[in-house]
Amino acid sequence: MKPAAFDYVAPRTVPEAVDALGNGGRKAQVLAGGQSLLLEMHLERIRPDLVVDINRIPELDDMQIIDNTLQVGALIRHHVFESTQAVPGPLGSLLSLAVVNIAHPPIRSRGTMVGSFGWGHPASEWCAIAMALDADIQLQGPQSARTVAARDYFHGPLKTARRPGELITSVRYPLLSEHTGVGFIEHRRTHFCFAQVAVAAILTVHDGVISEARIGLVNCADRPLRAHAAEQALTGVEIGPPMDGYQLPKHHPFTRSGRIASEQDAAPLAEPYADLEYRRHAIAVVAARTLCQAANDHRSRIGEAKGGCQ
């Protein structure tokens, strides 16, 4: 199918883009990578009057560390994060673990991280990580700029706090300390499908005891989630010796936290290939394995740090 007719503009500054988006109340859409937009237009599920192409705005093609936060501009492509060297420390490791689950290499070379926040899809890896890390979404509107915390940004399937005429200029993530271990595991029916469930786990550990846990859930409700109840169950828990995530005992703290995530935090919907019982089981298992991955990552970092001091 071909998309319905539309007008096209390619502004060269953020004010020009915002002006185009808010011009005359037209149904406008932003084009960055086009990973989702172009498909929806070809299927005519979206019929914009105007497409605003932001790819010629150089200030949006920027990623930098500001005040111990990572600021990712609206034109930074997914593939940038495939390298663990792109972002320092555990945050870089977490982003590199997640990005390989996004679509395919050609799409990752064009699609953008910030574009995921424009759509707010429940199965977005980036959006769940933003929830887990209390990231901020920065928007520029016709009158002023504003910042919205991730916890207040997602309102439902493809519904966000972004107002008509606003442009998302960047997303800010806090950097993670070296006392942090990270994990990200995704389960899907086939490589070509959206995740049935994915989990991002961030564990801050001191002297072998978890002082803080952060867990983001992908496609476990009608929006990205943070698993607060599962996190609370881990505070003050010893991570114990190295474990294989596929052989965790039933009474292990990570197994228990995974069950809590599936029963108390998640609100999954039945799908054609996965009923509710299966989906809750998958959430529990993937969450437990991801927590184990994060604990093992912490041990590895501590080992490397000690080895470097010798």
From TrEMBL:
InterPro entries reported in the protein's UniProt record = CO_DH_flav_C, CO_DH_flav_C_dom_sf, Diverse_Substr_Oxidored, FAD-bd_PCMH, FAD-bd_PCMH-like_sf, FAD-bd_PCMH_sub1, FAD-bd_PCMH_sub2, Mopterin_DH_FAD-bd
Q: Which UniProt keywords apply?
A: FAD, Flavoprotein, Oxidoreductase
Per UniProt, residues of the FAD-binding PCMH-type domain are 1-178
The UniProt entry, under SUPFAM superfamilies, shows: CO dehydrogenase flavoprotein C-terminal domain-like, FAD-binding/transporter-associated domain-like
Q: Which Gene3D superfamilies match?
A: 3.30.465.10, CO dehydrogenase flavoprotein, C-terminal domain, Uridine Diphospho-n-acetylenolpyruvylglucosamine Reductase, domain 2
The molecule here is called FAD binding domain-containing protein
